[in-house]
Amino acid sequence: MSIAAPSRFNPTTPASGQTSYTGALALVTTLFFMWGSLTSLNDVLIPYAQHVFNIKLDASMLIQTAFFSAYFIFSIPAAKIIDWIGYKRAIIVGLLIMAAACLSFYPAAKLPSFPFFLFALIVLATGITVLQVAANPYVAILGSPDTASSRLNLTQAFNSLGTAIFPWVGAHLILGTAAGALAHTPSKEADAVVRLYVFFFTAVLLILATAISLFKLPTMASAGHNLGEKVTDSMWKHPNLVFGAIGIFVYVGAEVSIGSSIANYLALDNIGHFISSSTVPDPGVRYRAALADAARYISLYWTGAMVGRFVGSALLQKIKAGRLLAFAAIMAAILVIVSVSGSGRIAMWSILSVGLLNSIMFPTIFTMGIAELGPLTGDASGLLNMAIVGGAIIPYFVGRVAVLLNERYYPQMMQGETSWGQGLHYALIIPAFCYLYILFFALSGSKPNSERYARG
């Protein structure tokens, strides 16, 4: 059964060889930057929520559950919106939804209310979903099919630029520093959330929506079919798409699990060791204070993804996408295992280095997943975007395993809702299994039908 969501484009074919897409790509790239910035701030909001709402690690992971659930729920409705009003207007609608969500952070932070906080994140992710369903396939077909992975890697690199910058900004504004963490009250943190979301991001999103409304974007015919047009093919007859959807699910789950855990993971004495026990003798106080400095390293994790995407964009011009994806997957799995097996700086830098290997995964899995889908490309994009729900499920699972391990084996390392036991250290083995599946996809699952069923 195919998803009843037609293509995102009602196209007019540009003249082959005569059209420059530089301006369109540059403008669409700003969308990647914006949703990367806002998505990465969730990693900072997790320790913030633990402090303000007095909740455990697994409950704070509901931030990611709420956010990424929107991809599963709203990807197909987003495709419908794009069919009804066109992709340009849908992008504007998506930006306006995001702006409204940023405004709703005011009551969420000021009350404060964790349920309202989660609601604001769901609305924010809904707007981002509209942008993603339109922008990813748009970039993939905005040029030669042979360089689609390279092109999408390049735009994703600017997505990673946002994810590299704003965790540091958010950690500095919201969590403060380790030295001042104890004096950083919930009301001060709430004021920082309001300044960042309500004032800054709302203004930027409205400006961007205005700019896009005034810009003429080209339309593409190669991945579209019109409303009411019958298509005899089915998405489910393309194993590379089905395996690709699972690949997106586990990739996003692994990437978000690690990013969401960095602050809590590095704050452990035997991993980051940011504060000496001679300076702050109480281990609970020391752990909570270390979170502020540990959160800043989230930016390094996402910076690795940014650097890797620029490098990957160039490498994919010369190396087959499947081979490069296989290399990245096996190396990511090894780094996770090294971190879980070790301690100190080795464990710290190996887990941070996974970001570099994550870099090419999403755009490469995406473009290999939609290979040879033709007029079903739009529907396939909706399915792949729904698979981003892995970011809602796997991080919570990692957090839950960490809490259970802490309660079972490290009850003495707990004060109220805060635990500095080694549960998270060992729970992070879960992403390694995700990367092993991606290795399978790269070597076998990604083969399109022309290759999979080719006669010898």
Give the SSE map:
Blueprint: H1 22-40, H2 42-52, H3 57-60, H4 62-85, H5 87-103, H6 105-110, H7 114-140, H8 148-175, H9 186-214, H10 239-266, H11 283-296, H12 298-315, H13 321-341, H14 344-358, H15 361-369, H16 377-386, H17 390-409, E1 414-415, E2 418-419, H18 423-427, H19 430-445, H20 449-452
Antiparallel strand pairs: 1-2
Helix pairs in contact: 1-7, 1-8, 2-8, 2-10, 4-5, 4-7, 4-16, 4-17, 5-7, 5-9, 7-16, 8-9, 8-11, 8-12, 8-15, 10-11, 10-14, 10-15, 10-16, 10-17, 10-19, 12-14, 13-14, 13-15, 13-19
Describe this protein with a few key phrases.
Growth Hormone, Chain: A, 456 residues, two-stranded antiparallel ribbon, 1% strand, globular, mainly alpha, 20 helices
Write up this protein.
There is one protein chain. The protein has 456 residues and is an all-alpha fold. The protein has one domain: Growth Hormone, Chain: A, CATH 1.20.1250.20. Helix content is 71%, strand content 1%. The protein is built from 20 helices and two strands. A two-stranded antiparallel ribbon has the order 1-2. Strand 1 and strand 2 form a beta hairpin. The longest helix is centred in the middle third of the chain and has 29 residues. The radius of gyration is 22 Å and the shape is globular. It starts with 21 loop residues before the first helix and ends with a helix. The N terminus is likely disordered.
